[in-house]
Amino acid sequence: MAEIISSFWGPVTSTTDCCEKNYAYSSYIAEFYNTISNIPTILLALIGLISAHTQRFEKRFCVLHLSIMAFAIGSMLYHATLQHVKQQSNETPMMWEILLYIYILYSPDWHYPRTMPIFLCLYGAIFAIVHSVLRFGIGFKVHYVILSLLCIPRMYKYYIYTDDVCAKCLARLYVATLLLGSLAWLSDLVFCNKISSWPINPQGHALWHVFMGFNSYFANTFLMFCRAQQCGWSPRIVRLMGVLPYVKIQKPKRQ
Ligand SMILES: [Zn+2]
Q1: Is 209 annotated as a binding-site member?
Q2: Among the listed ranges 105-109, 180-184, 217-221, which one has the minimum average pLDDT value?
Q3: Which terminus of the chain, N or C, has fewer Cβ atoms within 10 Å?
Q4: 94 Cα to the center of ligand 1, angstroms
Q5: Ligand 1 center to residue 54 CA distance, Å?
Q6: φ and ψ at 44, to 5 degrees?
Q7: Distance from C-alpha of 205 to C-alpha of 211, rounded to nearest angstrom
Q8: Can you cite a GO biological process for this protein (predicted)?
Q9: Mind listing the pLDDT tens digit for each residue in 98-154?
Q10: What's the total number of domains in the chain?
């Protein structure tokens, strides 16, 4: 892709380069919209973190929100610089996040509860090392999709066993944002040549970031609701400032 302003970070070394024109607005930010579009994800994860921490949810949910913030910050670094090492600071936390989802979804029924976190931590650590050495390209994406697919049957099970209308609505919003985000991401990828000739670029990849920020928030809120129900904490979905849904719990007095 042609560079208009001189680039502070040097030549592009990342394995993927999105449709947005590089260094169009600043010599310090390679892809401006793809960088700033990660801010909603960070803010939503921060709201989730405060909600999980102040209501004393299990630590796994705080770690989950923190890992989403880490990967959004990694994504900002990557899109701002288009350097391979920053690309990994985006991809490696993505992998940790999906391992956390597997833990949250499957640990309540796991026969050996102590071995599961050890196995997943080792898996995440070994992946980070191997990925930094071998620099998986398409291999990373295939691996990520396979792990994501593992989460779907359990998410579906939670969905059909939940009676709460508002919680079910969260799960539907999760699917809707995933579909809209994927559509935006694919359009940016497939129709880049056409889009580049348009007077205004719709910034499909930046839209994907925004949709996926909400997607993670809805997924986490739904999982917090399901977990609170399992623990008998009488959860209900309320709205922050009348808009953003979050889980309010009432723990029994003896706890
Ligand atoms: Zn991105």
Answers
A1: yes
A2: 105-109
A3: C
A4: 11
A5: 31
A6: -65, -40
A7: 10
A8: response to salt stress
A9: 999 999 999 888 887 788 889 898 988 888 888 878 777 788 888 888 998 999 899
A10: 1
